[in-house]
Design brief:
Layout (H helix, E strand, L loop, with lengths): L2 H17 L4 H14 L2 E2 L4 E2 L4 E3 L4 E3 L4 E2 L4 E3 L4 E3 L4 E2 L4 E3 L1 E2 L12 E2 L2 E3 L4 E2 L4 E2 L4 E2 L4 E2 L4 E2 L7 E4 L4 E6 L6 E2 L2
Parallel strand pairs: 1-4, 2-5, 3-6, 4-7, 5-8, 6-9, 7-12, 8-13, 9-14, 12-15, 13-16, 14-17, 16-18
Antiparallel strand pairs: 10-11, 18-19, 19-20
Helix pairs in contact: 1-2
């Protein structure tokens, strides 16, 4: 199937889904098409629709990644998501932005890769900005604006996101230290 035919089928599926939302095969088709366009996609990856990944050819997903609906990824600067990652609904991951120092924002384009480690949990409505690395085992709180690197096993939250605490490796739970 050529790319134009696949795009046509996706558009048709979107319109058909509005009329008959109980037909889950449409979302499965759209999710499968999106996975096939990625640079690399591990096994047991679930992408709930609607989700959007711009420049999917620059996005890597590890094994056992679970993505809730309404994820939006701008992948033009490169995005790598590790294995065993949970991403809640309405999350934004962007490796592209505009230069705030530019006289015309529309004429500026900044790209910086985003890397998310293994076993990361990203809460609903979180935003991860270009150039950020999220360490393995970290938790990004709901609504957090992540503009700086997150250490491994850190729990971060807020706008801008700050470290709240660390998860102790020997307990598996969350610690206040």
């Amino acid at each position: 199937m050529n790319h134009n035919m696949a795009r046509f089928l996706v558009l048709l599926a979107r319109r058909f889904h509005r009329v008959f939302p109980m037909l889950g095969w449409i979302n499965a088709f759209r999710s499968g098409l999106l996975r096939s366009e990625l640079k690399s996609c591990g096994v047991s990856v679930d992408i709930m629709m609607p989700s959007v990944i711009e420049n999917p050819q620059l996005v890597i997903l590890g094994d056992r990644v679970r993505i809730a609906p309404f994820l939006h990824v701008w992948g033009g600067g490169g995005v790598e998501i590790g294995s065993n990652v949970l991403i809640a609904s309405h999350v934004v991951i962007t490796s592209e932005s505009h230069d705030p120092k530019s006289p015309l924002f529309i004429d500026s384009h900044v790209k910086a890769p985003v890397k998310i480690g293994d076993n990361v949990w990203i809460g609903a409505h979180a935003i991860i900005l270009p150039g950020v690395t999220v360490g393995s085992g970290a938790v990004i709180g709901a609504g957090a604006l992540v503009r700086e690197d997150v250490p491994p096993r850190a729990v971060v939250g807020g706008v801008p996101a700050k470290v709240i605490r660390f998860i102790k490796p020997d307990e598996g739970g969350i610690s206040n230290s």
